Amino acid sequence: MRTFSARLSRTVTTAACTLAALSLGGQATAAPPESSLALSLRHSDGTIAVTQLHCDPAGGSHPASAQACEALDDAGGRPAALDSAGPGTACPMIYAPVHASAHGHWRGEPVHFTTTYNNACLADVESGGVFGF
């Protein structure tokens, strides 16, 4: 009985050490995204929405990260140069201003951008989806 218990203890200890070694460096970690932006929208009622956008590869908590990354790529990473989503997208003409900001880096260059849109729908459309969250 004692030998079985000692063998079981050694087996469990060896397995635990192997798992620890793998988690501490036995596997390659993913490279950080090439571009990362913290985006926020402050609505006229005082609420604030925030999200994180990663590009190259697309990810983060942004609900449409691939679309937002593509729009920023087309704008050379400059939020001020974002184009609208194009014809066919209509927004209500309700004035409920939202203050948008983007801070972080795009392919190694710092990004600090703020602007105000007339409402949240226009923020989404006029930014090509970057501020669509």
Please explain how this structure is put together.
The protein has three helices and five strands, in the order H-E-E-E-H-E-E-H. Strand 4 and strand 5 (about 110-115) form a beta hairpin. It folds into two domains: about 1-30; about 35-125, 2-Layer Sandwich (Subtilisin Inhibitor). The protein has helices spanning about 1-25, 65-75, 120-125, and strands spanning about 35-45, 50-55, 60, 100-105, 110-115. It is globular and about 45 Å long. Helix content is about 30%, strand content about 30%. The longest helix is centred in the first third of the chain and has 25 residues, at about 1-25. With about 130 residues, it is an alpha+beta fold. Strands 3-2-1-4-5 form a five-stranded antiparallel sheet.
Write the layout of secondary structure elements.
Blueprint: H1 2-26, E1 35-43, E2 48-55, E3 59-60, H2 65-74, E4 98-106, E5 109-117, H3 120-126
Antiparallel strand pairs: 1-2, 1-4, 2-3, 4-5
Organism: Prauserella alba
Protein name: Subtilisin inhibitor domain-containing protein
Subcellular location: Secreted
Low-confidence stretches: 2-24
Structural class: alpha+beta
CATH topology description of the largest domain: Subtilisin Inhibitor
Give the number of domains: 2
Please give the largest β-sheet: 5 strands, antiparallel
Tell me what the CATH architecture of the largest domain is: 2-Layer Sandwich
CATH domain class name of the largest domain: Alpha Beta
CATH H-level name of the largest domain... which superfamily?
A: Subtilisin inhibitor-like
Give, in spatial order, the strands making up the sheet with the most strands: 3-2-1-4-5
Measure the end-to-end span: 62 Å
Beta-strand percent range: 25-35%
Main location: secreted
Organism: Prauserella alba
Family: Belongs to the protease inhibitor I16 (SSI) family.
Signal peptide: 1-30
